[in-house]
Amino acid sequence: xxxxxxxxxxxxWGMASYSQDTIKKSSPVTTNSRFMYRMLEPNMNLEKVQxxxxxxxxxxxxxGQLVVGASLISLLDYQKSNRDSKFAYLMRHPTSRNQIGKxxxxxxxxxxxxxxxxxxxxxxxxxxEILYNPSQSFGSGTITSLGRNQIQLIKGFVLIxxxxxxPVYGAVGKMDAPFGQTGSVSPFTxxxxxxxxxxxGYGAQVGFSKWNLNATFMAVQGGAQFRALHxxxxxxxxxxxxINNFTADINYTIPISRQIGFRLGGSYMHG
Length: 271
Known about the structure:
By secondary structure, the chain is mainly beta. It has two domains: about 1-160, no CATH class; about 165-270, no CATH class. The protein contains three helices and twelve strands, in the order ββααβββββαβββββ. It has helices at about 35-40, 50-55, 190-195, and strands spanning about 5-15, 30, 65-80, 105-120, 125-130, 150-160, 170-175, 200-210, 215-220, 225, 245-255, 260-270. Strands 1, 2, 3, 4, 5, 6, 7, 8, 9, 10, 11 and 12 form a twelve-stranded mixed sheet that branches. The protein is globular.
């Protein structure tokens, strides 16, 4: 099998333009491309609660301020394979739902994200991410089908805590599970670790972060959740009527230089 990728066109506003990452501190509604890139980036670092805590600690989000960011990624490509309808790229769906035959080409929208992150005061902040991704949707049909053209709140949580004042924090909402090192170096493809143990679900987190040590516990809503966090309730029902699952993670980072560190840790997922 061989593949020819002619071009990938990225159109990003408020996300990848690192030359425009300054905050307009006088404005209650502003943009911060460096900060929003970290919050919206879907594969390389999924610890969004921890990222928001760190960015608030470093002064990237002021009290009473709302940061808005968006990303639009379009694709233009050509591929050829010696296997019929097998073009395994962009993580999902190497099937005839996206491609058919041995030669394919496309000019499509890969995904659109809208992020909103705000701080009410020193102790209370929130984050929400809206996602539209017809090319990667698990819905039935083709990219023009209604089932694959849904807009969803992919992540959203309320954060309680200020690491400049106290090392304990909490969060409630829809979040990635604090489990393992599931990040990837690819902008499109998740790791094998993520495919096996990655989880997204409703729940509540409590954590400790100080002295390069971070420990997080998340109580997860049972029933129908996302990927590894799905846990049956009562007589194997998927009704999310009970908090019956949890995951925990503890890690310690040894700083080597300003940009390099060594992290050692362990995680546990109950359900």
